Amino acid sequence: MSSPIFFSFLLLGLAGAAVALDKVPEKDRFRFINEGEYVDAIAEYDATYRAVSVVGSPFQLTFYNTTPNAYKLAIRMGTPRSGSIRRWVWEANRSRPVRENATVSFGADGNLVLTDADGTVVWSTGTANKGVVGIQILHSGNMVLYDKKGGTAKLVSRKSESDGSPGIYSLVVQSEEPILYVDASPKPLVYFNNSVVRATFGSGSKVPGTFTCKSEDNVTYELSFGYTLVVTKYDSNLSFLRLTPDGDLIVYTYDDRVEFNAWEKTFSLFSPDQFFFSSSACYKPSKCLPLGICDGEQCVACPTAKGTTGWSPRCGTRCGPKYNPSYTKVTGVEHFLTQYSDGEGRLSLGECRRRCNVDCNCLGILYYEETSQCWLAPILRTLNKVNEPKHVAYIKPY
Ligand SMILES: *[C@@H]1O[C@H](CO)[C@@H](O)[C@H](O)[C@H]1NC(C)=O
Ligand SMILES: *[C@@H]1O[C@H](CO)[C@@H](O)[C@H](O)[C@H]1NC(C)=O
Ligand SMILES: *[C@@H]1O[C@H](CO)[C@@H](O)[C@H](O)[C@H]1NC(C)=O
Ligand SMILES: *[C@@H]1O[C@H](CO)[C@@H](O)[C@H](O)[C@H]1NC(C)=O
Ligand SMILES: *[C@@H]1O[C@H](CO)[C@@H](O)[C@H](O)[C@H]1NC(C)=O
């Protein structure tokens, strides 16, 4: 790749024209309506999809959905006949799915526009009358995370496999170094900083933080992020970088010569057995959820009030059918919840506490002893001191 440009544009491969104000030839314009049959093929996230006529093997523009009537305009990767799964490598505005009968059109002005069924323009390439004369998806997997002007772009994880809306992890290239962030209040926190890691590797040279693919000979292809990430067995042009819903940074490489098992996970930042480079899995925030101790890349123990116990995925959860902690009682308090909502209604104190025990979002309960009224509190913050000792709060222990 010569000059770095936006990742989405690269995948779309919008061909810039030499002469300004040229128009898209009639035969290359299209308008596709999101309706009708789905393609009969397996795709990532158990998605169903409709194919738009913009293809550049192994890529194709599609409308896909994982929930009824909520589609994303996306590029899928995988050859049409392959028995391997098709993966989603790019999506137009993940926060804003479109409905049945949405359209994607590419008109004479060279702008690719996504319009919802009600006529709302949801997304466009913003290339109207910029001399674009065609649209093409290239056989290329190069991805760069900043534009020509040096503005930063963020790669944001999905919330989960089934929910494509923005998740809590993001990758940003700052001062030409990749940095991973996890959302936190009041501001996102760094959980991977390439320059710190590079310093411990003893490499002094500063290199641009771009994701590039280059062919060393006809056999191996190298992916680098300033330094070598991985050498793939096959064409690294057909590789893509993904920030997973659990915050790992991975590279998938596709082998378009084979029918089955065409995908290989060629890199995982937090996987300990990478030959080239990795960060300890114990620095991945999601490794031992919700709260555990990680040692030698494995979750090994749970911290508890009585010291550590053996690891279990229930570690640190303050909820569950067998969870019955001693709550801290505060007498003579009310809360905005008791003031403005009905809560769970009338319940015995035992039942009120039991509901909080099993509810992982419950941080404590508010209880009116004289009326047996019960509230489960997903946030507590401020307790309002009142002159009524029968109005109490029970706070779950940490
Ligand atoms: C994506 O959609 C959201 C919600 O409609 C909107 O606020 C946002 O500006 C859109 N982003 C882009 C890049 O179009
Ligand atoms: C899509 O548009 C067609 C033609 O206007 C209409 O018959 C159909 O009911 C629409 N589908 C939905 C789900 O709105
Ligand atoms: C990453 O680490 C470098 C070197 O320690 C430091 O100068 C830089 O500020 C860090 N970046 C972030 C975003 O924390
Ligand atoms: C790679 O393949 C090309 C064309 O098949 C050939 O001309 C070239 O010599 C090969 N290079 C190496 C390093 O094997
Ligand atoms: C990978 O992409 C580069 C640049 O677009 C191209 O020259 C090369 O032929 C591609 N490799 C393969 C195996 O297609």
Description:
The chain is mostly beta strands. It has three domains: 26-144, Agglutinin, subunit A; 154-268, no CATH class; 281-395, Hepatocyte Growth Factor (3-Layer(bba) Sandwich), CATH 3.50.4. It contains four helices and 28 strands. The chain has helices spanning 7-12, 194-201, 336-340, 349-358; strands at residues 30-33, 48-56, 59-67, 70-77, 87-91, 103-106, 112-115, 121-124, 154-158, 166-174, 177-182, 189-193, 212-215, 221-225, 227-232, 239-243, 249-254, 263-268, 293-295, 298-304, 307-310, 328-331, 333-334, 345-346, 364-368, 373-377, 384-385, 391-395. It is globular, with a radius of gyration of 26 Å. It starts with 6 loop residues before the first helix and ends with a strand. Mean pLDDT is 79; it is low at 1-20, 140-152 and 202-210. Pfam families: B_lectin. It comes from Spirodela intermedia. One of its GO terms (molecular function) is D-mannose binding. Keywords: Hemagglutinin, Lectin, Mannose-binding, Repeat, Signal.
Offer a quick outline of the entry.
With 398 residues, the chain is mainly beta. The protein has helices at residues 7-12, 194-201, 336-340, 349-358, and strands spanning 30-33, 48-56, 59-67, 70-77, 87-91, 103-106, 112-115, 121-124, 154-158, 166-174, 177-182, 189-193, 212-215, 221-225, 227-232, 239-243, 249-254, 263-268, 293-295, 298-304, 307-310, 328-331, 333-334, 345-346, 364-368, 373-377, 384-385, 391-395. The protein folds into 3 domains: 26-144, Agglutinin, subunit A (Orthogonal Prism); 154-268, no CATH class; 281-395, Hepatocyte Growth Factor, CATH 3.50.4.
